[in-house]
Design brief:
Elements: H1 6-11, E1 21-26, H2 41-55, E2 60-65, H3 68-71, H4 83-107, E3 112-116, E4 125-126, H5 129-137, E5 141-145, H6 155-165, E6 170-175, E7 181-182, E8 194-195, E9 197-198, H7 200-205, H8 213-221, E10 226-230, H9 235-240, E11 247-249
Helix pairs in contact: 2-4, 6-8
């Protein structure tokens, strides 16, 4: 785990107003725990417990889960696979993760709905924007599965798109093993510098590996702030409460 520099800690001053509605993007790898691939029930239960605590405070919460924990396990078999076919396989993998997270949340008493961009009517509702918003208004945790339903788009893009569609005030990105955005890869570059705040355009121009360019562009055009933080215990609650944790990517509004 990378420790945040003291200079960055001192730079994190002030606190944004509490959110009304947010979208939380969880990487599939976050569900693996210490395993090489797959789903670790204890890890999912811990994340679910924190999500329930966040949502119980009145926050309207939607979630998009990636599929790296499952798709990585079949990467060898997927070598040479048609790109569109591979992307559809990844979308189906997100459905598996969504169902696992839903089960963990409901065992804690939360009300949830899984909305899928691909039709899997036996296990999830079809994605309909107004239905998703109504579920949020009724206090249900909404989990979006199957990405955008289209190949060639990542779950990062799906998270940005769904956040904008439901009118979320921020996109919270829980990362596995990194405390925010750096100017290099802290796992391979010991001199990588932590960046507490930057704009969407800076992230795109500098080629920082926050999320894909399509997702960043969507957020930039619609001025949707992105909070990038490490998915360690307590951080979801801290970020959702308005505490400055990790990196904030935003585009300031121009003064008239």
């Amino acid at each position: 785990m990378t420790v945040q520099p003291e200079e960055a800690e001192r730079a994190l001053t002030g606190a944004p107003s509490p959110f009304r509605r947010v979208l939380l993007k969880l990487s599939g790898e976050a569900l693996m725990g210490e395993q090489e691939y797959g789903i670790d029930p204890a890890t999912v239960a811990r994340i679910a417990d924190e999500i329930v605590e966040v949502q119980s405070g009145g926050l309207e919460l939607a979630i998009v889960v990636g599929a790296g924990n499952i798709y990585r396990g079949i990467a060898a078999a997927a070598d040479g696979m048609d790109r569109a076919t591979g992307d559809y396989a990844g979308m189906l993998a997100t459905v598996l993760n969504a169902l696992a997270l839903q089960d963990a949340l409901e065992r804690l008493g939360a009300l949830t709905r899984v909305l899928s961009a691909l039709e899997v009517s036996e296990v999830a509702e079809p994605y309909i924007r107004r239905r998703a918003m109504r579920h949020l208004e009724k206090g249900r945790i909404v989990i979006f599965a199957a990405g955008t339903g289209n190949p060639f788009f990542t779950t990062d893009t799906a998270a940005a798109l769904r956040a904008l569609e439901i009118g979320a005030e921020a996109l919270l990105m829980g990362k596995n093993g990194t405390s925010g955005v750096f100017d290099g890869d802290p796992r391979t570059d010991p001199d990588a510098v932590f960046l507490p705040q930057l704009t969407h355009l800076e992230a795109i121009e500098r080629g920082l590996r926050v999320m894909d360019t399509t997702a960043l562009s969507l957020c930039m055009e619609n001025r949707l702030p992105i909070h990038v933080f490490e998915l360690t215990e307590g951080n979801i609650l801290r970020v959702a409460s308005g505490e400055r944790v990790g990196t904030i990517i935003s585009t300031p509004r121009k003064e008239a």
